[in-house]
């Protein structure tokens, strides 16, 4: 039988405090780095999504010779102001999130009742929803009536026709809000547009507040995005 070694002992309180201090120091050093990397990853994801939307718009124009502009209620109503990209977990006919960013930038809240990004008036996801980018870029159904190739949809035959889908399923931005495309400024036909609006593709960024005005030429606060073009038809 092994005889006890009375020289063995556990950690002293001082030693435990010393080890704990080392652990806390390492946490203090590496936690901000990990947080920074996570923030960077969300920014990169946001920018990649916006580039995909930009490419989809370009392909759409090449095929049809026009930009997504149909308001969906009549074949001649081309006054769409916004396209919103939201939650891909909803049904295919209503692929738009219910969360728009808080709006502080100027000129974003104008438009008709179904054509606004005001947080107080999120576009309907069950009725006609011309704002839904899914119905323009993923399916040819701008009036969201669950019936493609109707008289209010984009042309599906002839030399210039809808050949999508132009974009895979994109969700809300990494911060939980809809992406916003100021399509009215791109087409030059958006309803209730202010003079000098730009064709922004935007995320409200980490704070969820859209600080950039529709007429701005540069981003404000932590918004993420860029001007695709201005009246580029």
Structure write-up:
The chain has 233 residues and is α+β, with helices and mostly antiparallel strands. It has one domain (44-229). The chain has helices spanning 13-64, 134-137, 183-187; strands spanning 83-85, 102-103, 179-181, 199-203, 209-210, 224-229. The chain has a 4-stranded antiparallel sheet with strand order 1-3-4-6. The longest helix is centred in the N-terminal third of the chain and has 52 residues, at 13-64. Mean pLDDT is 79; it is low at 90-95 and 120-128.
Topology summary:
Blueprint: H1 13-64, E1 83-85, E2 102-103, H2 134-137, E3 179-181, H3 183-187, E4 199-203, E5 209-210, E6 224-229
Parallel strand pairs: 2-5
Antiparallel strand pairs: 1-3, 3-4, 4-6
Chain oligomer state: single chain
Q: What is the terminal-to-terminal distance? A: 93 Å
Number of beta-strand segments: 6
* Structural class assignment: alpha+beta
How many structural units, i.e. domains?
1
Share of residues in helices: 25-40%
Strand residue percentage: 5-15%
- Low-confidence runs (pLDDT<50, min 5 residues)? 90-95, 120-128
Along the chain, the helix and strand elements come as HEEHEHEEE
Tally of contiguous helical segments: 3
Widest sheet, order of strands: 1-3-4-6
Largest sheet: 4 strands, antiparallel
The radius of gyration computed from the alpha-carbon positions, rounded to a whole number of angstroms, is 25 Å
- What average pLDDT do the residues reach? 79
Overall 3D form? elongated
